[in-house]
Write a structure and sequence with these properties.
Shape: globular
Distance between the termini: 37 Å
Number of strands: 19
Radius of gyration: 21 Å
Bound molecules: (3S,4R)-3-hydroxy-2-oxopiperidin-4-yl beta-D-xylopyranoside
Strand order of the largest sheet: 3-4-5-6-7-8-10-11
Number of helices: 11
Structural class: alpha/beta
Length: about 450
């Protein structure tokens, strides 16, 4: 079945997307007109498909021991296109004895997700909590070394399988101090966070590296400002960081703030992706869930949302009933609100368009999207210009087989694509046939015209 489109070709999550542009025999591309038939079964009717339509993912935390629960797996497989292991990649799970690594439960989740085309967020490489006993008892340079070895080993094991890592989790203190949280890791020296990021980059250069925390949602809070300053400092000094995770556990003591969208867009303006990584909201009010989704959609670098569990009974805060499905697996009003928001029209940004960098340039950021056994999608977000030209290269024998939201042209090799804006917005995408090579496509340039 082929997608019905009016005007723009929009990103789809399945092979039906490959109608926009077809690779011709000589390595050149010919634009074809899509045949018009009724729409797909899934687009717009599940969280993952609807988020993909907006160039984003919709994920959930997953517990390995629940994958055999039929109701759980059915909802997971139907609704979500991203997965975060809830506990299975934490330090106590992956290195229970020093130097002895254990990946069974994490691998189970990764395999479940990736064999179904879902992406995986890795959580988490360095954290003061859920440390194994041996690590809790360590300090000083021995602990620093052990932490870096852990980051290296785990990121290496999952290299190429994890789209984004929460490299460091919860390193700042609550309250008004804006200080680092005291922990054994912090006591190894203030540079422990950047050391962890550098080790993660070296071990898995293809993964996005995130700093993740809670109570960093309200722009006015000292903790939010402290994380903002850390990210700004890292970007200025060239410490590798690609994203900021806002856990966004909302409840009466830590409610959804009215300036949440401002927080998302201010982090994004530092040149990092923003991800909502552990969303749950006490009582699951539909209006608040809707606001969170609309806020993310209003910020182009808010690349996805993960809820921290599937059914209320799966939640770490089950008594708050904070999730999108009831204990028996029924959709709650919050589910309907989230789906409608994902399917809704574009929401006006609270802040104006970004100022173009000097010299008429723009910034193009490529992220991995859905992956299948033979091909994968990439999405490129352009900031700084509305009329843009972006050059992207794939690695032979890879071939781009379809594109959306832009007008492509090709060099004679067929490996370098020049994509021009066509009025469809600032996110374009393409599908690459891997032909055995899974190297991430490279953005070569972005030019404003
Ligand atoms: C929680 C899990 O959901 C629980 O199962 C576990 O007992 C404790 O950790 N911030 C985080 C997550 O980054 O890893 C935490 O997950 C919730 C708070």
């Amino acid at each position: 079945m082929i997608e019905r489109c009016q005007g723009n070709i929009r990103p789809k999550s399945g092979p039906r997307a490959r109608t926009a542009v077809v690779l011709a025999a000589a390595g050149l591309l010919a634009v074809t007109t899509a045949a018009f038939l009724p729409g797909t079964a899934s687009a717009g009717t599940t969280l993952g498909a609807s988020a993909a339509e907006r160039g984003r993912y919709f994920g959930t935390a997953v517990a390995a021991n629940k994958l055999s629960d039929n109701t759980y797996a059915t909802i997971l497989n139907r609704e979500f296109n991203s997965v975060t292991p809830e506990n299975e990649m934490k330090i106590d799970a992956t290195e229970p004895q020093q130097g002895q690594f254990s990946y069974g439960a994490a691998d189970q989740i990764v395999n479940h997700a990736r064999s179904r085309g879902m992406q995986v967020r890795g959580h988490t490489l360095a954290w003061h909590s859920q440390q194994p006993g041996w690590m809790q008892n360590m300090s000083g340079s021995a602990l620093r070394q052990a932490m870096l070895n852990h980051v290296t080993q785990v990121a290496t094991h999952f290299r190429g399988q994890v789209v984004a890592w929460d490299v460091v989790n919860e390193a700042f203190a609550d309250g008004s101090s804006g200080a680092r949280r005291d922990s054994n890791l912090q006591r190894t020296g203030n540079d422990w966070i950047e050391a962890a990021f550098r080790a993660a980059r070296a071990a898995d250069p293809g993964a996005k590296l995130c700093y993740n925390d809670y109570n960093t949602d309200d722009w006015t809070h000292a903790k939010t400002q402290a994380v903002y300053n850390l990210v700004r400092d890292f970007k200025q000094r060239g410490v590798p960081i690609d994203c900021v995770g806002l856990q966004s556990h909302f409840n009466s003591g830590s409610p959804y703030p009215g300036n949440y969208r401002t927080t998302l867009s201010n982090f994004a303006a530092l040149g990092v992706d923003v991800q909502i990584t552990e969303l749950d909201i006490e009582g699951a009010p539909a209006a608040t869930y809707r606001n969170v989704v609309q806020d993310c959609l209003a910020v182009s670098r808010c690349t996805g949302i993960t809820v921290w569990g599937i059914r209320d009974t799966d939640s770490w805060r089950a008594s708050q009933n904070p999730l999108l499905f009831t204990g028996s697996g029924a959709k709650k009003p919050a589910y309907d609100a989230v789906l409608a928001a994902l399917n809704g029209g574009s929401t006006p940004p609270t802040t104006g368009p970004p100022t173009p960098p000097p010299g008429g340039g723009c910034t193009a950021t490529l992220r991995d999207a859905t992956r299948w056994s033979d091909r994968f999608n990439s999405e490129v977000t352009v900031s700084g210009a509305s009329n843009w030209t972006v050059v992207v290269a794939v690695t032979p024998p890879q071939k781009i087989s379809s594109t959306w939201n832009g007008t492509p042209s090709w060099d004679t090799s067929g490996n370098v694509m020049t994509m021009r804006s066509n009025g469809s917005g600032n996110v374009f995408g393409f599908t690459t046939m891997a032909n055995g090579t899974w190297t991430r496509p490279q953005v070569r340039s972005c030019t404003a015209s």
